[in-house]
Write a structure and sequence with these properties.
The chain has no helices and 13 strands. By secondary structure, it is mainly β.
Length: 166
């Protein structure tokens, strides 16, 4: 009479993508024992996978049809939020020019960052340039696509001047 293989359990965790979300997931990959597995998670779920998780430690106890059990736990991690601020403002040098720029400072999140103007393109350079005078909404996005808060910056230009030669 053969004996079933011992229970083996691997928890495959997917951490939260962005600060404040509850999109963590854990899949319990079980092998061995005798089928008919019964799952009991610390959050009350009885499925082989749990979803929409917030940060924290999750435990699972799995029992096979023979009453053999295996227990494991894993941690779901929430990344830090993106902290951003306006650095230097590079004002337009001459009236009507488009040589202004906005430096955006960023930390937290999951680097590397991309910087850009709302409804515009994003770039890896923290100075968004070639801008005419005006008020702009800017933002930082990290490597996971998480976005920082919208910041407002104003680029100015000098007044037009006239020369009266006589």
């Amino acid at each position: 009479v053969g004996e079933p293989d011992s229970l083996q359990l691997i928890l495959d965790a997917l951490d939260i993508s962005c600060k404040g979300l509850t999109d963590g997931r854990i899949d319990a990959n079980i092998s061995g024992g005798v089928g008919g597995y019964v799952y009991q998670w610390s959050n009350g779920s009885m499925d082989g996978s749990i979803e929409e998780l917030s940060a924290g430690t999750y435990n699972v106890n799995i029992e096979d049809a023979n009453g053999c059990e295996i227990t494991a736990s894993t941690l779901i991690i929430e990344p830090d939020g993106i902290e951003s601020d306006i650095g230097d403002i590079l004002n337009v040098l001459c009236p009507g020019g488009s040589d202004g720029g906005i430096q955006i400072l960023a930390s937290g999140g999951t680097p590397p960052f991309e910087y850009g103007i709302i409804d515009g393109s994003f770039q890896p350079d923290s100075i968004v340039g070639n801008l005419p005078a005006g008020t702009y909404e800017v933002m930082v996005r990290d490597s996971r696509g998480c976005e920082g808060e919208v910041l407002v910056a104003t680029i100015t230009q000098p007044d037009s001047f006239f020369v009266d030669a006589g």
